[in-house]
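Quiz preparation item.
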């Protein structure tokens, strides 16, 4: 595993954590109020020795040169990394008491999540259903910090919460974990 590419993947992961409706500040909008506690999702590290569960608190989000102090809503709810490919699968939730998310469609939320990607050469969108809720699955190929990446996101909006499920990998190893990510997404249960 090349450390340089791992650092690029972690940088992308950190940028995404402060992206979407999950901590992104626009104008006078206040940051996310809280994480959702109304869901369940599989633990990839159980039953598959290639996946290790990351401790989201051990990742220093300030290393991405952000000025604001890290809050719990800027840290992924759960994240896993492949030992073999350095790919990352994560889930982040963000809830607000206001009805701010009601006026934003899934494509808008996804676009904010993907702001850090440059030189995008592939973008494929597909409407799907996850846990009986409409969702938007988007796959892109592009660059983050000059490193080529492939990324698949699934964005779900339910009540006053947004759920971002993300899979990021090198393009040459992306297919190796697509099925794992599909199982991860399918395991999501919103209560």
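Solution:
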């Amino acid at each position: 595993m090349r450390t340089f590419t791992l650092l690029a993947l972690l940088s992308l992961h950190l940028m995404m954590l402060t992206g979407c409706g999950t901590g992104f500040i626009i104008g006078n909008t206040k940051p996310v109020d809280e994480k959702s506690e109304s869901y369940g999702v599989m633990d990839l590290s159980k039953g598959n020795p290639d996946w290790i569960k990351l401790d989201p608190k051990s990742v220093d989000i300030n290393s991405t040169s952000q000025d604001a102090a890290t809050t719990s809503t800027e840290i992924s709810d759960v994240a896993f990394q492949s030992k073999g490919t350095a790919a990352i699968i994560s889930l982040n939730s963000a809830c607000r008491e206001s009805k701010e998310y009601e006026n934003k469609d899934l494509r808008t939320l996804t676009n904010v999540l993907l702001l850090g990607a440059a030189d995008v050469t592939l973008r494929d969108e597909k409407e799907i259903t996850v846990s009986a809720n409409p969702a938007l699955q988007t796959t892109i190929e592009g660059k983050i910090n000059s490193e080529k990446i492939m990324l698949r996101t699934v964005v779900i909006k339910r009540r006053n919460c947004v759920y971002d499920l993300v899979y990021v990998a090198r393009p040459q190893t992306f297919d190796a974990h697509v099925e794992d990510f599909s199982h991860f997404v399918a395991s999501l249960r919103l209560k």
